[in-house]
């Protein structure tokens, strides 16, 4: 394989290709210059020795640095609690301040239930309320295993998987567990009951859940 890269092209092939043959020394100089230009990493090794050991890479590209994507960091539940993102400040705990929210919720339910007409089926309204967003609803604790909760009424400000937080008319923020409690919601004369033990889920999960008509044991 010695000097294969400097081998002279046969005259008949050169004539067919329209090439002009050069002297061997000029050809060797040209090939050496071409290889050094095409392979910058070739330093001490001769072109012939390099070609005998590996394939030739005439083109190369610089390694591009991978750009780090700025992924938005999602706060954990503990971080949200530590930052007190959902804490309602004492100066904001006023019943009158959330009456507009309650009026917006009433209009939202009317639109959801197609106007709450007198001939509307109670079961249809009940099914709509089960999946509705309750923030702004006027909630009343109808029954509970804890007597101190019975009769509490207020506008729902926050709902989690296990509790309701609402503001009462005397400007007090109350946290009532859903477990072992029955809540009533009134809207335009329709009264709907919510069994908290069957309601232990987030509002986002509740909107996609299919509720089945099952009998509930009274407290």
UniProtKB/TrEMBL annotation:
Give the CC-aspect GO terms.
nucleolus; ribonuclease MRP complex; ribonuclease P complex
Please indicate which superkingdom the organism of origin belongs to: Eukaryota
Oligomeric and partner information: Component of nuclear RNase P and RNase MRP ribonucleoproteins. RNase P consists of a catalytic RNA moiety and 10 different protein chains; POP1, POP4, POP5, POP7, RPP14, RPP21, RPP25, RPP30, RPP38 and RPP40. Within the RNase P complex, POP1, POP7 and RPP25 form the 'finger' subcomplex, POP5, RPP14, RPP40 and homodimeric RPP30 form the 'palm' subcomplex, and RPP21, POP4 and RPP38 form the 'wrist' subcomplex. All subunits of the RNase P complex interact with the catalytic RNA. Several subunits of RNase P are also part of the RNase MRP complex.
From the Swiss-Prot or TrEMBL record, give the protein name: Ribonuclease P protein subunit p29
Biological role stated in the UniProt entry = Component of ribonuclease P, a ribonucleoprotein complex that generates mature tRNA molecules by cleaving their 5'-ends.
Residues of the signal peptide: none
Tell me the GO BP annotations in alphabetical order. Answer: rRNA processing; tRNA 5'-leader removal
So what family is this one in?
Belongs to the eukaryotic/archaeal RNase P protein component 1 family.
Compartments annotated for it: namely: Nucleus, Nucleolus
Q: Which InterPro entries match?
A: RNase_P/MRP_Rpp29-subunit, RNase_P/MRP_Rpp29_sf, Rof/RNase_P-like, Rpp29/RNP1
Any GO molecular function = ribonuclease P RNA binding
- Which UniProt keywords are listed? Nucleus, Phosphoprotein, tRNA processing
Q: Which Pfam families match?
A: RNase_P-MRP_p29
- Organism expressing this protein natively: Xenopus tropicalis (Western clawed frog)
């Amino acid at each position: 394989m010695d000097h294969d890269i400097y081998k002279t092209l046969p005259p008949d092939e050169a004539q067919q290709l329209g090439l002009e043959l050069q002297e061997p020394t000029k050809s060797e100089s040209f090939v050496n210059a071409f290889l050094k230009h095409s392979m910058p990493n070739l330093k001490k090794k001769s072109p012939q020795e390099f070609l005998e050991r590996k394939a030739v890479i005439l083109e190369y590209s610089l390694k591009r640095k991978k750009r780090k994507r700025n992924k938005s960091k999602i706060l954990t539940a503990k971080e949200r609690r530590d930052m007190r993102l959902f804490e309602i400040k004492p100066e904001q705990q006023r019943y009158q301040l959330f009456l507009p929210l309650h009026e917006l919720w009433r209009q939202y339910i009317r639109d959801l239930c197609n106007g709450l007409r007198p001939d509307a089926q109670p079961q249809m309204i009940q099914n709509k309320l089960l999946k509705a967003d309750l923030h702004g609803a006027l909630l009343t604790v109808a029954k509970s295993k804890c007597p101190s909760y019975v009769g509490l009424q207020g506008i729902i400000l926050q709902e989690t998987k296990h509790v309701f937080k609402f503001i009462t008319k005397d400007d007090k923020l109350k946290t009532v567990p859903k477990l072992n409690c029955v809540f009533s919601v009134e809207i335009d004369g329709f009264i709907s009951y919510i069994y908290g033990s069957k309601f232990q889920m987030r509002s986002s999960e509740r909107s996609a859940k299919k509720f089945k008509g099952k009998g509930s044991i009274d407290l």
